[in-house]
Amino acid sequence: MKIFPAIDIKDKKCVRLVKGDFDNKTEYEMSPIEQAGKYKDHGFKNLHIVDLDGALTGETVNLDIIQDIVGKFDLKVEVGGGIRNSDSIQKYIEAGVDKVILGSAAIKDKKFLKESCEKFPNKIALSLDAKDGYLSVSGWKENSNILTLDYLMEVNNFGLSRVIYTDINRDGTKKGPNFEKAKKLADISNCPVVISGGVSSLDDIKNAKTLKNIEGIIVGKALYDNDLKLEDLINEI
């Protein structure tokens, strides 16, 4: 089981949002680079980074910070947030990022997703961010009429390296992930699934371990708020 501590970057700071709401955010004192170093020091090998400025603008706003993190620490980093063209993907791969996460751009344009998977084999992760079963796009500000499972079936053979499933209603709430929906996705997915949204306890990690085709789990707010201790979490890897 891979555990991905999360770093969300906004205005050069670590922040956490509740249900993706930019007006409901908490800022933390530790910088993204310091936070990454803390995770590395505790023995973590994977890291999930979202460029929230990028999600809003469609640009690689915090590329310099992410380059620093990749350069300083031997971590497998996956990065998402506003990645909408091949140039942005190329920049992140050249920076040493392990996986580039496509979300809104992939959902709005399946051809872009397919071409990206072909051009950057084993590098493209697909973010499926869902609210009440339907995908959300544009930094979660826009709901689509696309059912999450239907969309995955359409792109399942594109050569994705990973699917990241987030239940938006759980994100930042620490109420536990939506294991039921995650299991349905994992059952049909041709690639491993990573669960995100609402992780709050070691029991959530243990539950994820029992599910088939679940590669890992992303932990965010519960770590920042010390509901989950890094020392306890590392034992579950």
What descriptive keywords fit this protein?
11 helices; 237 residues; alpha/beta; TIM Barrel; eight-stranded parallel barrel; 30% strand
Helical/strand content category: alpha/beta
State the CATH topology.
TIM Barrel
Helix percent reads 25-40%
Number of domains: 1
| Strand order in space, largest sheet | 1-4-5-6-7-10-11-12
Number of helices: 11
Explained architecture:
With 237 residues, this protein is of the alpha/beta class. It has a single domain, classed as TIM Barrel, CATH 3.20.20. It is built from eleven helices and twelve strands. An eight-stranded parallel beta barrel has the order 1-4-5-6-7-10-11-12, surrounded by six helices. β8 (134-137) and β9 (142-147) form a beta hairpin. α1 runs parallel beside α3. It starts with a strand and ends with a helix.
Summarize the structure.
By secondary structure, the protein is an alpha/beta fold.
Reconstruct the topology from this structure.
Blueprint lengths: L1 E9 L2 E6 L2 E8 L3 H10 L4 E6 H6 L5 H10 L3 E5 L5 H9 L4 E4 L1 H5 L1 H10 L4 E8 L2 E4 L4 E6 H8 L6 E6 L11 H10 L4 E4 L5 H8 L4 E6 L1 H4 L5 H5 L3
Parallel strand pairs: 1-4, 1-12, 4-5, 5-6, 6-7, 7-10, 10-11, 11-12
Antiparallel strand pairs: 1-2, 2-3, 7-8, 8-9
Helix pairs in contact: 1-3
